[in-house]
Structure formats: structure tokens, C-alpha cells
């Protein structure tokens, strides 16, 4: 009997590939199990004796955080380690009524008062000695050190899940690539074996019959050519029309601003009302760009963000740098808590820009119409970088006027005309279009 091929060699290659895959799998599993089982080295420091640091944190945030920070000077001095600088008996008196202590001529109280620009500290007679002990325990906790990420590794977020190193995904891809290579090798070997078997048995494989190339057959068919030309013309016209209809439409426009402002943090996490910053939208045609003084209403005492504010894309250091840009623009000296008078203009990049021939009044929509800001500007509370949500085309505005009902609750301005027009159209609620919202002169004057 004639030997046609060594089939055992193929089997050995398959077993070798499977063995390598299993070895890599067990190695990866062992590494991941060790990482999960490893105890957290950066354990939270024990609370200072004499008070409950957890309760102290709550009291600090409720009473002290408006003027004090743990590790940076604000309106008042930094408070971390304050217990090592002053006696507890003196701290009790100072917290409960600092003004009386200063008036009594206490040298230490007068010194603190002078060092902090003679800022008068609020009195807290409602705080007991135990409450103050708790606050002192919180301020006595050592500062948590942020561990530097290992080279090439994932950055761990405090309190969050451990990021996947990606070893498992690479292993899966490697195994799939190995299987694919083995299959290709097997096909080549099988083809060789079949060719040898056919040759040994005198089997002659007939050559493939010569056929007309498909492009030549297509070129000879005039009907197919006509249909193809018509299809290409219609397709081209469709795309050309779509291109020209997008001229001047900037939906999704998301420019980078000179100072990074996160609507996600302000309108989302902190639930600041849109009209607190954009107050002009209630009474004016324009929504207005908020003055930086509005920003300083809060950021006088907020010089840095919390650790939990950071995202994989934007670190805490990045957000803190943006606050420093704000301070530079308004001329705020954080060390002395005073304005220097040296200001710099901020060149904001405009996002929403209607054509000059279009009239749009914010107050008409926001105050009279009661339209929510998100209707036109999208879910701004979710935006890290503000962008143009709506196309702001004529068709988009007309469609909104046709669908939006006029709010009549407490709106006496429309009472008489609403009664007359609702009878005319036989409806209980009129839309903006039925109130004349489709007249050309409403938007083009």
C-alpha cells in the first residue's frame, strides 16, 4: 500500500496549539486571581482619638467648608492638623464665639484675625465640645496620598472598580489567530494529500471551462448599462442635494473653549439651574454669556474639585487647572483672597449662531412659552463639552411650532385670543402654529 501522507503530524500540531492556549489561560487566570485577592495597601487612616472623624466630616461640610479647606487657604486658613497648633480649650472658645475672643484681647485670637485679612469668622454656639472634637478628629486625619499608576497599567479610581488589564482579551485574540493558522495549514496539507491520492489512482482532474469575464458580459448588456447609469445619476443627485442642504447647519458643533466648562458638573451633579448663569434668557432676546463674576460667586471658595469629580478622560488636576485660569481672568489672588485688579478677557467661542435674517427671542420662549432649555439645547446636564444639539433649521422650528401647545396656565396674555381661536379650530389646546407661529413676519422681519 502506497503512503499518501503523514496524518499524525497534523494531530501533533493541533495538540500543541491547544496546550499552548491552556497554558496562557491558566497563567492569566492566576494573575487575575492574585490581583483580586491582594488586600488594599492604602487603607484609610484611623480616625484621630477623641472624636469621630466620620461625624466630623459631616459637620465640617455643613458648617466649615464654605470658608475653609483642609489643605489650602480659602477665606480662612487650611485646617488640616489644626489641633497640633492650638490647645483644645482655646479652640472651643474660638469656634463658639471668635469675635468675643478677639475683643477680649487674646493674643492668639488677634494674631489669627490679622493673618486672615481681618475676616470675621461666624460664631457656632450651637456646636458642643463633642461636635468640635469630631471636627478636629476629621481635620487631624493624614492626607491621602494618590499612588502613581504603574507604567503601562490602568489607573485605579478610589472607591471604583479595578480596571481590567486587557490580558484576557489579548489571550483570546491570540488563541483565535492560532486556530486560524492551524486551519489554514490543515487545508494546505489536505489539498496535497488529495492531489497525491488522485495521482496514485490515475484520476485526472478536468480543467475548468473557460468562461466570459463578468465585466465583458456586463458591457455587452445595454439594458444593465442603462439601469446602472440611471441609478448612479439618482444616487449622485441625492448626495449632492444632501450636501447643499447641510450648508450652514452646524448640528453637533463642539468647539474647545479657552476655559473648560463642564455642564455635566454644574448643571448635572450640582443641579445649578440654567437661568442662574444665563439670567438674560428670561428677559432678553439673547441668552447671554454669563459674567465671570457669576462664576466667582461659588469659586471664591471652590479652588479645587473633589477626587470623585475626575473621569477617565479628565483628571482632577485638569479641572483644578481650569479654576486657576478663571482666577487669572478675573484677577483673583487665592493666597490673600483679594482681587488684584489685573484682569484678562476670555475669548469664548460661540456655538449657536442663527442667520442675521432670523429673529429669535429667548424671553418669548422661556418666560411666556415656558419652554425648557433642554428642548433646544439638548440634555446639557450630561454634556462635558457644550455642543449644538438641534439643527436650528427653518424646518425644525416650524415642526416645533406645529407640535407645541401653548401653555395657558397663569398666562393671561393669550386668554382672549385663545378663546376665539380654539372655537375656530374646534380644539381645547392651541398649538403655536394655530396662534400665528407660521407667519413669515414672526421670524423674518
Automatic annotation (TrEMBL):
Domain (Cytochrome c) ranges: 51-143
Short name of any one Pfam family annotated for the protein: Cytochrom_C
Gene3D superfamilies the record matches: Cytochrome c-like domain, Cytochrome C3
Cleaved signal peptide residues: 1-30
Keyword GTP-binding: no
Transmembrane segments: 171-190, 223-241
Keywords: Electron transport, Heme, Iron, Membrane, Metal-binding, Signal, Transmembrane, Transmembrane helix, Transport
Record-linked InterPro entries: Cyt_c-like_dom (IPR009056), Cyt_c-like_dom_sf (IPR036909), Cyt_c_III_dom (IPR020942), Multihaem_cyt_sf (IPR036280)
Annotated protein name in UniProt: Cytochrome c2
Originating species: Flavobacterium tiangeerense
Taxonomic lineage from the root: Bacteria, Pseudomonadati, Bacteroidota, Flavobacteriia, Flavobacteriales
